[in-house]
Specification:
This protein has about 725 residues and is α/β, with parallel strands linked by helices. It is about 50% helix and about 15% strand. Strand 14, helix 22 and strand 15 form a beta-alpha-beta unit. The protein is globular, with a radius of gyration of 31 Å.
């Protein structure tokens, strides 16, 4: 930011451009003040308004002054690329040491899992250290031999002691000949890697850049990145490096920072709730239980009987539970995806727990689970040593340890607020048999997120759809965050938002022939009067396919594309944006509704058909119930669990068009629940759930009038090539 804007060059030294976007300078100043006070920040900003730099500039400045590290994270690949571009722009203004970090699985040159990698690393380090000790002892032995030749007193005894130690060490090194080691990591330890680090910090390198460099040089790029992270200014990474407590602990250790010396920045932060829920949820399959029981049959240990007793009872209870839960004819409906079964009860523990208690016979579940955990840890250490010694070609996982840990959590936490016991089944593609899974589904993820936000220096959470802030605050467990919202600062005349008064598309109404005909006619008009591409979002892929097939069958002139759960979405997107008169039909719960830009002519119109409530399921009901109990006396269950996530999805979809100050387009909401009439529809009227400045732009139109509103708007912007279409 230029000094003429009223700020010193030093304060804005990390800002890489001459002028900020509208409101960006204010946002940066407020974030700087919040970080200085170690307050968390909730920042909502429309697409293309510079949210990333609004957070990064003051965060990097504060980190430089206070000797901290900034970690910026996202779960969207396109945003990861944008972070790299912004970081590179910053380095042109103020050099920073930045690392872009990915997990081991995407950077490993020999394709081993995380546990195997850990063992290989430890074994390789031990080997290299012993080889270095051997080399040092040989040098020492040669020096003592020279002393002996010169007649030095005591040289003979000292040399003999060194030779004895050398013989012992050489025997240990010889034993490593059959051990499993990693040649790439050995190269890290035995070669000069200074050139790599000079290259790494000469610019902002992507993980792909690092992988290619390391592959050419025979090095391990993943371990070099970990080594190079200590004390850097900025790290770009994925959500799981922060949301998984065990990974986070290691991650901060690699940074060489205590948590209070880390500033975290979350992009697309409306996704943090669901990501944290996934990280907190625990599962145990019937196959893992069976493997644990097979493992125990081979163990000669007094604790094995206790472990087999308790895990066998849980295994049998799981089979009994899903057999009883499957209704007549339901077994045949189960495919290769997990199929949820209801096992919860309002007045007692879940069916699986009750079946487990009924089947278990022994001195006590907690006692025998503790013995199983002890044995599991012992076996896991033994497998580690076997792999190190080269006795096995892969690092065995201890199934007993994983199963016992799950049963322990199931009995201890299964009835806690926010934990919902689940049972699912799926069909084995090889045998066609069913097998089950127990799951502790985490409904309220704030136990995961609050711990993170409490321990770091401060966090900035940013998104185009964070409001209402009170819901975000409660769901994530934030204490008194600084909140700021900046809407579309682009010219209002460049956009038109139409609330189209088609009948409310409740699931019970979607099959009505007259309603379908009206929606199809409206969409036909939308496609015809859009001078370019149109995005059409529906509550599900099935609804998208319904109208895609209908319009295609009616021979509309626009090119049509259909997205789906079994479609290569990225390939479909590429061919769609290459068109100049196309329409893409997709689900609002798919991958194209957020984190993907459709700039300029890529899409001039976006239409959201219906109110895309998430699929009603036991999980969704459990989330509603948990929030309702956590915040009694309110509509929190419905509001936190259903209404707000749905409106955020809708707002994300609307944000796919109008991505820059010069961009223009039309956004349509096809459902009466978006119109003013929705005020009389109770909780199902959603217009009031949009931020005030957004809903004031909604223009209610009848379905047959939408084409006129679009014609007028696009004519005003000279968007039609040649004569505009006739209404």
């Amino acid at each position: 930011m230029a000094a003429s804007n009223g700020s010193t060059d030093d304060h804005w030294r990390f800002f890489p451009y001459d002028e900020p976007y509208p409101n960006q300078a204010e946002a940066m100043s407020r974030i700087a003040e919040a970080l200085g006070a170690e307050r968390n920040v909730l920042l909502e900003g429309a697409p293309g308004t510079g949210k990333t730099l609004s957070a990064l500039v003051p965060a990097l400045e504060h980190a430089r002054e206070e000797d901290k590290t900034v970690v910026i994270t996202t779960n969207v690949h396109q945003q990861m690329r944008q972070f790299v571009a912004d970081a590179r722009a910053i380095t042109r203004t103020e050099p920073i040491r930045a690392v872009v970090f990915k997990g081991k699985s995407s950077m490993c040159h020999i394709d081993v899992d995380y546990r195997e990698c850990q063992t290989l690393r430890d074994t390789t380090r031990d080997l290299v250290e012993k080889q270095e000790e051997v080399a040092e002892l040989k040098r020492r032995e040669q020096d003592l031999l020279d002393d002996l030749r010169e007649g030095s007193d005591g040289a003979a005894d000292a040399r003999q002691a060194v030779m004895d130690e050398l013989e012992s060490l050489e025997s240990e090194v010889e034993a490593f000949e059959s051990a499993n080691v990693c040649d790439h990591y050995r190269a890290n330890l035995t070669r000069d890697t200074g050139t790599f680090f000079s290259w790494l910090f000469d610019d902002v390198r992507t993980p792909e850049d690092v992988y290619d460099y390391a592959d050419r040089e025979g090095l391990c790029g993943y371990e070099l990145l970990k080594e190079g992270m200590e004390g850097v200014d900025l790290v770009v990474c994925n959500y799981h490096h922060l949301l998984d407590p065990l990974i986070r602990e290691q991650f901060f250790r690699w940074l060489g920072r205590d948590p209070e010396d880390v500033i975290t920045v979350f992009d697309e932060a409306h996704n943090v709730e669901s990501a944290a829920r996934d990280h907190a949820t625990r599962t145990l399959t019937e196959n893992t239980l069976a493997s644990a029981l097979s493992e125990l049959e081979e163990v000669d240990d007094s604790r094995a009987d206790a472990a087999e007793n308790v895990l066998g009872a849980f295994h049998d209870a799981l089979r009994e539970t899903y057999d009883d839960a499957l209704a007549f004819g339901e077994r045949e409906q189960v495919g290769e995806n997990w199929y949820d079964l209801s096992i919860s009860n309002p007045d007692r523990r879940d069916d699986l727990t009750m079946a487990f208690l009924d089947r278990y016979e022994g001195p006590g579940i907690s006692t025998e689970v503790e013995l199983a955990l002890q044995l599991g840890k012992h076996l896991d250490e033994e497998y580690e040593e076997q792999y190190k010694r080269g006795e096995t070609t892969s690092r065995k996982e201890c199934q007993t340890l994983g199963a016992a840990a799950f049963v322990d959590a199931w009995m201890d936490e299964g009835s806690d607020l926010g934990q919902h016991p689940m049972c699912s089944v799926r069909r084995d593609s090889g045998t066609d048999d069913l097998y089950g899974r127990a799951e502790l589904y985490t409904c309220i993820p704030r136990a995961v997120t609050r711990e993170l936000f409490d321990e770091v220096s401060a966090t900035v959470l940013m998104s185009a759809t964070l409001r209402p802030f009170d819901v975000t605050r409660d769901v994530l467990g934030l204490e008194d965050p600084e909140t700021m919202a900046y809407g579309l600062a682009y010219p209002e005349e460049n956009r038109r938002t139409l609330a189209v008064d088609v009948p409310p598309l409740f699931s019970s109404e979607r099959n009505d022939p007259e309603t379908q005909a009206l929606v199809a006619d409206t969409l036909r008009d939308v496609l015809r009067f859009t001078p370019g591409n149109t995005l059409c979002f529906f509550p599900s892929y099935a609804e998208a396919e319904r109208y895609y097939e209908r319009l295609r069958g009616e021979g509309v002139e626009t090119d049509l594309w259909l997205d789906g759960s079994d479609v290569d979405t990225e390939a479909t997107r590429r061919t769609f944006v290459a068109s100049d008169d196309g329409a893409l039909f997709t689900s609002l719960w798919g991958t194209l509704s957020e984190g993907v830009s459709f700039d300029g002519d890529d899409a001039r119109t976006v239409a959201v058909v219906g109110v895309p409530y998430p699929h009603l399921s036991e999980r969704m009901e459990a989330v509603q119930d948990a929030y309702g109990r956590a915040y009694p006396g309110s509509e929190a269950g419905w509001r936190y669990g259903v209404e707000i996530p749905t409106i955020r999805k809708t707002r994300q979809a609307l944000g796919r068009v109008i991505r820059s100050p010069d961009d223009f387009g039309v956004r349509l909401l096809l459902d009466r629940r978006y119109t003013r009439e929705s005020r009389d529809m109770g909780r199902y009227g959603v217009r009031g759930s949009f931020p005030t400045e957004e809903r004031t732009e909604f223009v209610d139109v009848a379905p047959e009038k939408a084409k006129f509103a679009m014609l007028n708007f696009f004519t005003d912007h000279d968007a039609y090539v040649g004569e505009p279409p006739r209404p």
